[in-house]
Design a protein that fits this description.
Shape: elongated
Number of strands: 10
Number of domains: 2
Order of helices and strands: EHEHHEHEHEEHEHEHEHE
CATH topology of the largest domain: Rossmann fold
CATH class of the largest domain: Alpha Beta
Strand content: 15-25%
Helix content: 25-40%
Number of helices: 9
Strand order of the largest sheet: 3-2-1-4-5-10-9-6-7-8
Length: 317
């Protein structure tokens, strides 16, 4: 197992069946990597959740809830220990959910955080739009987001990620996802597709004096086609060079260039058409600013994807 990136996996839980849908994939990865699985529940005191009820809640009720959370987590750990060769444990923490999760994951040296994109706990304070969004912005390690199903999860189901899609925008920052994606896909025996989305070239609206409409249209069409062809060729050459990193490790890799105004639409469409199991992308990109940013491409992919999404925030961004 030497060299495997994933040794410690953190799974935040909110006490709901929906939140537990992150567990089968966490167990599957742990089985293959020998990683330990760390379950975490963050308890928020009732007075912090219901400010208007301050003074009505007493410590006894809070302690009762914490005991319930501990029993719930201990029960899951007992089920997981026989499935995870690297071991499993649980931690009950207290405070503001997202900051506490980030601090805990960093403190124990977690390599990966896996969670569902939303939950339905008894106080409905998780996930999408709050905790998951905050962690996408702040976690220093990869975050793998799983969409919950309608039925209780089968912890022994062993889901396998057979096809990993890695969207790239041509920058070193976007390429920061290659390492985490490659390691996870290698554990699963997956094939990879590197996707580069380029925007269509818009024809100029200026009409050179003295040119007829037909001639002008023809000139513009030829110019646009030439530029578009050059951009596509450049993108293909870029992907070919990046794909060498996969071929050097004898991994199966495809490259694909799509022409689309909206990169998120192209990513989602290709994921569906190619039967992708995981989309892996960085949250920052072009020009050192936010090209792949929460609230645009990354946000849309997370919310609209029918498959799991792994995101990562490059260091120093």
């Amino acid at each position: 197992m030497e060299g495997v990136m994933y040794r410690k996996i953190v799974v935040p839980l909110d006490g709901s069946i929906f939140g537990e849908h992150a567990l089968p994939l966490a167990v599957s990865i742990a089985r293959r990597s020998g990683a330990a699985v760390h379950l975490v529940h963050v308890h928020s005191p009732l007075e912090a959740v219901y400010l208007e009820g301050a003074g009505y809640f007493d410590d006894a009720l809070d302690e009762h809830l914490k005991r319930q959370h501990r029993e719930y987590m201990d029960g899951l750990v007992k089920r997981l220990r026989s499935l995870c060769p690297g071991g499993a444990d649980a931690e009950l923490l207290e405070g503001a959910v997202a900051p506490v999760l980030e601090q805990h994951a960093s403190k124990i040296g977690a390599d990966l955080v896996i969670m569902t994109t939303h939950g339905r706990g008894p106080f409905k304070r998780f996930w999408l739009g709050s905790v998951a969004d905050e962690l996408v912005r702040s976690l220093p390690m990869p975050l793998l987001l799983v969409h919950p199903g309608d039925r209780p999860p089968d912890l022994a189901s062993d889901p396998v990620l057979k096809h990993v899609l890695v969207p790239l925008d041509g920058t070193p920052l976007a390429e920061s996802m290659l390492g985490p994606a490659m390691e996870l896909g290698t554990l699963m025996g997956a094939e990879f597709t590197l996707l580069r989305v380029i925007k269509p070239v818009m024809p100029v609206t200026y009409r050179p004096e003295g040119l007829g409409i037909d001639l002008e249209a023809q000139v513009l069409i030829e110019r646009v086609e030439r530029i578009q062809g050059e951009l596509r060729k450049k993108a293909e050459e870029y992907l070919f060079e990046v794909s060498k990193r996969f071929r050097d490790r004898l991994l199966k890799v495809h490259t694909k260039v799509e022409v689309e105004y909206n990169p998120a639409d192209a990513i989602l469409a290709h994921a569906k058409a190619a039967n992708v199991d995981l989309i892996a992308l960085e949250t920052h990109g072009r020009h050192g600013l936010r090209r792949l940013i929460l609230g645009s491409i990354t946000d849309k992919v997370i919310r609209a994807s029918h498959v799991a999404v792994m995101v990562h925030r490059p260091l120093n961004t």
